[in-house]
Write a structure and sequence with these properties.
Rossmann fold; 398 residues; 11 helices; 28% helix; alpha/beta; three-stranded antiparallel β-sheet; 14 strands
Length: 398
């Protein structure tokens, strides 16, 4: 408190103690792939398709990155970081220029390079020299990671491990384009609560090749995530949503076939007569039933990250009951806003969530060790995945 010696009027600013917690962005994507041009292993923020084409070129045949980013923006995506893992082969220019006349005579082959797994795993040589996935460690805003067309087990394992270590990110993974057997033979990624898996590939019009081709769906799916987050909120399952830009599917699935895939956590993309091509699944591929639904996983990521960033001011504050009350008040206000937005189940705030920071959680020995412990819980909304109407005959009675 200031010490005054001269008579007069003094005005002091006093903190109200209210430090609102804000929910951060949940739909910023980190893309890994091979671009037509542009910086290598320098994640670059892109906010529209025109900006992407100026920095990284357009659609090309040496990888699926361009197609995925195109579908991302088509489906409502707004921001993404592009990590171009390597320069496109020198033959790219010839393939797009001198061989235009032969394009219709030769089968179109688009694929990632053979060393894609090594490029994705990358290396950590310190700040400014990280490559592959490691380059995303410097960017806190990313909440979704996509590597279009990458299905190799080592690569998907690296992506999932990256998301698990980052804690607040989920991976959107593609199934292989071609089935070797029936739908029950689709190779699955390893068990994880931080990923979603989509099948089959979708057909889109390639403006460079002037024809329709099948492309991996992860870019369009990530765009749908952004669209749903913006219009409904991260608590809404990103399913039963139109896949814009998709004109057909690599495989048209039946209800019986999806019955085999849904319990495994394979989210199907299906075409319905008169309703278009829609994402028809919203699960992770985790064996843990607590994290079965993707929207629940992403909601917890958002809440945990918001609380972590919104309570930094607490560090080194005097560990008193007054501090505990401030923490409870700020977190309660944040969760109350989410409940009003429909993110939690419950008719009242008391049913939907609780926040505790008291003497029981903070005994003297815990305070002496420098800890302040706060406990909170909330009831996330679950999607109505199976809608059942029970119909019976009604008999007339006297």
């Amino acid at each position: 408190m200031p010490q005054y010696q001269t008579p007069g009027v003094y005005v002091e600013e006093v903190s109200s103690g209210s430090k609102p917690i804000e929910a951060g962005s949940t739909n910023i994507v980190g893309f890994l792939g091979i671009a037509q041009k542009g910086p290598v292993d320098k994640p670059t923020l892109v906010t529209n398709w025109t900006q992407y084409t100026k920095a990284f070129g357009g659609l090309h045949t040496n990888g699926w990155l361009g197609h995925a980013v195109y579908l991302f923006f088509q489906n409502g995506g707004t921001k993404c970081y592009i990590n171009n893992l390597a320069e496109a082969p020198a033959s790219e220019a010839a393939a797009e220029g001198g061989e235009e006349g032969a394009a219709n005579d030769k089968p179109i082959v688009i694929k990632n390079p053979d060393n894609m797994t090594k490029l994705i795993i990358g290396s950590d040589n310190g700040p400014g020299q990280r490559t592959g996935l490691m380059a995303f460690n410097e960017i806190d805003d990313i909440s979704i990671v996509c590597a279009p067309g990458v299905t190799e087990p080592a690569a998907t394992d690296a992506i999932l491990s990256h998301c698990e270590q980052a804690r607040f990110r989920v991976a959107v993974l593609d199934a292989p384009e071609v089935l070797e057997g029936g739908v029950d033979s689709i190779p699955m990624p390893r068990d994880s609560t931080m990923g979603a898996f989509y099948f089959p590939w979708v057909k889109m019009y390639d403006t460079e090749l002037d024809t329709e081709i099948f492309v991996p769906p992860c870019g369009g799916v990530a765009g749908v995530y952004g669209r749903v987050d913006s219009t409904r909120g991260v608590h809404k399952a990103p399913a039963n949503e139109i896949m814009r830009g998709a004109t057909a599917l690599r495989y048209n699935l039946t209800d019986a076939e999806q019955e085999l895939l849904n319990p495994k956590g394979i989210n199907c993309i299906r075409e319905f007569k008169g309703r278009g091509i829609r994402i028809w699944g919203a699960r992770t591929f985790s064996s843990d039933a607590e994290w079965k639904y993707l929207n629940v996983r992403r909601l917890f990521c958002m809440v945990e990250k918001a609380i972590k960033e919104g309570t930094d001011w607490v560090v080194f504050e005097p560990n008193t009951r007054g501090l505990w009350k401030q923490i409870v008040r700020n977190i309660t206000g944040f969760l109350l806003r989410l409940w009003k937005d429909g993110a939690f189940f419950g008719d009242t705030p008391e049913e939907a969530f609780y926040v505790r920071c008291d003497d029981e959680l903070n005994p003297p020995e815990s305070i002496d060790a420098g800890y302040v412990v706060c406990e909170l819980g909330f009831a996330p909304v679950k999607p109505a995945e199976f809608v059942v109407f029970r119909v019976s005959q009604k008999t007339l009675t006297e």
